[in-house]
Design a protein that fits this description.
By secondary structure, this protein is an alpha/beta fold. Helices cover about 45% and strands about 15% of the residues. A 7-stranded parallel β-sheet has the order 3-4-2-5-6-1-7, sandwiched between helices. The chain has a 6-stranded parallel β-sheet with strand order 8-13-12-9-11-10, with helices on both faces.
Length: about 625
Amino acid sequence: MSILNGHDTLALLPTGGGKSVCFQVPALAREGICLVITPLIALMKDQVSQLRNRGIQAVAIHAGMNRSEIDILLDNCIYGVVKFLYVSPERIQTELFIARVKQMNVNLIAVDEAHCISQWGYDFRPPYLKIADLRELKPGVPVIALTATATPAVRDDVMEKLMFRKPHGLFQKSFARTNLSFVVRNAENKERKLLDILQKVKGSAIVYVRSRKATQEVATALVKRGIRASYYHAGLSFEERSKRQEEWIQNHTRVMVATNAFGMGIDKPDVRTVVHLDLPENMEAYYQEAGRAGRDGLKSYAAILYQQADIANLQLKTELAHPSPEFLRKIYQALANYFQLAEGSSEGESYDFDLHDFAERFHFQSQEIYVALKKLEEEGLIQFNESFYSPSQVYLLKDKPGLYQFQIANARFDPFIKMILRLYGGELFSGYSKISEQQLAKGLKLPYDETVLLLKHLHELRVLDYQPVRDKPQLTFVLPRQDTDRLPLNIKRLEARKQLSQRKMNTMIEFVTSSHRCRMVMIQEYFGELDQQDCGMCDVCIGRKKKENFSELRELQESIVTLVSQRLITVEELEERIAPRDHELFVDVVRDMVDDGVLEYDDAWQLKVIKKNN
């Protein structure tokens, strides 16, 4: 109702909390088009696809698209029946977009991932600051800002930067997850501990690691132990990523081992376990990733497995993530040389980018290039998309009479044009439509290469606009190519961001090393929810129960040893036989007994006694 009443609104909802519904429903209830600003291209494409499947017209404009594509889509937003226009923040500051948005009947501006507008947030993006300019172009249009993670300082900053008018709405769902048990283990053998967790907690799981190499290594190790696992990272092809993701969603694969490139926008409510084998960089990222477990409301687990060396590695990674201004200028100049760009050129242009080729040519390390690119992106100079994919698309540039005249005058193209119209219909006249060159070739009984040549020829003749498939990392110059000596870096802000990153890192280290404070309470306090009660089910709370109920603990240990001594038994069978009053305590006691060498699992994951518990 807040939006329908025309009030600016901030909604803080956890991952999977239905943020898209908050703007889609009021936008559909009002005449006009809804602008949705989001930095996540994959999420943008996914939501556009979902809306179209429901018969709702939606389009997306983002990095990697050429000017003609954008031009046509914006025209459709003015003169067509488009209801939702998804746009990346970098695109809203272009002259082309500004000129066209003035002509649109905008009913709502939705700002997704709104924490990106605040330099106190964990993923600050300067182009977000330009969203306020839209308010001057469309002064009567309400704004809804949405995010899953925002501290009180970020929340206030979002409302200030978006120029919220009073009265405004603020809706915040508690960060508490009553069905999610947070567990931290200092583990000498992470692989063994991961196997232990996956044995105890059945069902779908995500295992997060930091490097692409580690995703494959961990997945391979799990498969060798009889666990259906796969791996996912931005370096895989679009087809491979899609295939693996779908196999996991359909439960053909149980465990997905992935970098943080995995999970955003995936709707899978029955994830039972999320395990981090490397320390997350900050609480915001951890809460989002851990929150992908248990969206169906059933009992689930979020575990961090770490060693002391991981803390030192995180400290080093945090330091390296903030290169000097001099190094940023050096990388920027190398990019200009790599793409042979003149000063003042290439605003909004996107290029295929091979990071390893770039590293070899200019003698940089891949990791130092990557962090520099992310920092140049944070400064609003470029945009770097590691896993960009755009299918082949066609848009007919001639109207129906003009196309008919062309077919008469150019008989050799007539069968081809008839086939493409038969396969993809009238939508080709109103906007870009996805096509399959393979399908066209099969219909025409032509070789694939010849079909592609015909498409390119018609493109050159301006009969249609043909955009071949793109599946390589994309680097976009948000601003025109700058003079490197006068590169507009905000030095003061860069230093402030470095200090903020270090404070967030220290909070994360405190979270994993604390042994006396409830994990859920620590999370809630970080996000500004004070005076909360202990969750009763994290590892710290369970540890406290064990100390307070020593006699119950000893009785449980003795019952376990007695039953396991009689025969090999699974954890599930053991719990059924004992019927413990506290499930969490039972699980933790079994874990401790395995760690202490009292019990062990055999190859069939049945428990057996090694030595008597004294």
